[in-house]
Amino acid sequence: MTTTEIPASTSSKLTRRLGFAALVSIVVFLAMALVISPPDVSQRDAVRLFYLHVPTATIAFYFAPAIIAVGSVMYLWKKSTFWDLAAGTAAELAVIFSAFTLVTGMLWGKPTWGLYWTWEPRLTATAVSFVLFVGYLAVRKLDLDPVIRSQRAAVLGLIAAANTLLVRYSVQIWKGIHQGTTISPMNMQISGLMWGTALIGFVSFTLVFAWLMIHRFRVAWLEHQLAEVGLDLAISERRAERDVAGAASTDVRLTGEGA
Amino acid sequence: MHWEFVIPGYLIVFVTLAMYTVYVVRKGRALSEQLPPEKRRFLD
C-alpha cells in the first residue's frame, strides 16, 4: 500500500475483522443472556445481570490494569511513548468498565441484597479503584511538561493497578456481603446454559475491549502525532521569523555602512 | 421478575458502548484527515 492510499480513519483489516467478530458475539450474547438462558431458582431474572457484571469487572480489574501496569513500568524504564499512550488508553477503558461494574452491581444488589449500595469491603475497594482511574486520567490532562506529566501518570497508574489486587482479595480478607469467586476452574458454581452464557459474555466483552483498545490507542497516537506536527510547524515558523528579522537587520546595517 | 433492574443494566452498558464507539471512530477520522499519510503509521 502506498502512502497516498492510506485511508483517513483508525480502521485496518485487523480491526474490521475484530469488530465483526465482536458484533456477532454480542448479538449471540444478548440472545442467550436475555432470551435463551433460564431464570435462576433463587435470583430469578436478576441473574441476567451476572452475565454483564462479571465480564465488565474482569476487564476493569484484570485486563485494563495489567496494561496500565506494564505500560507504566515500560514508560518509567524506557521512556516509551507507545507504552505511555497504551497505559492512558487502558485507563480510559478501565474508567468505563469499572463504571459498568459499579452500575450493574448496584442494579443486581437491589433485588438480591435488598440495597443498591453499602460500604462493605468489595464495593468500597471497587469505588476507590474507579476514583483512582479517574484521577489517573486527570493527571494526564494536567498542564505540565509532557515528560513530567507522563512520569507522574505512570506512578499513579502503578498505584491504581496495585489497588485492583485489593479489589480482587477484599472478599477473602474482610469477608463482607459480596460473594466470592463464582467462575473458577477450582470452584465452578454454575453449569449448563448459564455457564455457556457466561462464557460467551466473557468472549464478547473481551473482543469489544480489544477493538476499543486498538482504536482508542490509534486515536491517542494521532493526537500525539498532531501535537508533534504542530510543534514542528511552530518551530519552523519561529525560525523563518528569525531569519527574516536577521536579514532585515543586516540590510539596515549594510545601508548604514554604505551611507 | 426483576426485569426492571435487568433492562436498565443492559441499556446503560450497550448504549454507552455504542456512543463511545461512535466517538472514537469519528475522532479517529477527524484526526487522520489533519495528518499527512506518512504520520498514520499504525495502519497495516
What proportion of the residues of chain A is helical, as a percent range? over 70%
Largest sheet of chain A: none
Distance between the termini of chain B: 49 Å
Distance between the termini of chain A: 62 Å
Major beta sheet of chain B, specifics? Answer: none
- Ranges of chain A where pLDDT stays below 50 over 5 or more residues in a row are none
The helical percent of chain B reads over 70%
Structural class call of chain A reads mainly alpha
Rounded mean pLDDT of chain B is: 88
pLDDT averaged residue by residue of chain A:
87
Q: What spatial form of chain A do the alpha-carbon principal axes imply?
A: elongated
The quaternary organization reads as: heterodimer
**What sequence of helices (H) and strands (E) makes up the elements of chain A?**
HHHHHH
Q: What pattern of helices and strands is seen along the backbone of chain B?
A: H
Largest interface, counted by CB within 8 Å of the partner chain's CB: A-B, 46 and 33 residues
The low-pLDDT segments of chain B are none
Form type of chain B: rod-shaped
The amount of beta strand of chain A, in percent, is: under 5%
Strand content of chain B: under 5%
Can you count the helices of chain B? 1
Please explain how this structure is put together.
The complex is a heterodimer of chains A (259) and B (44). Chain A has 259 residues and is mainly alpha-helical. Chain A has 6 helices and no strands. Chain B has 44 residues and is mostly helical. Helix content of chain B is 73%, strand content 0%. Chain B contains 1 helix and no strands. The longest helix of chain B is centred in the middle third of the chain and has 32 residues, at 3-34. The N and C termini of chain B lie far apart (49 Å).
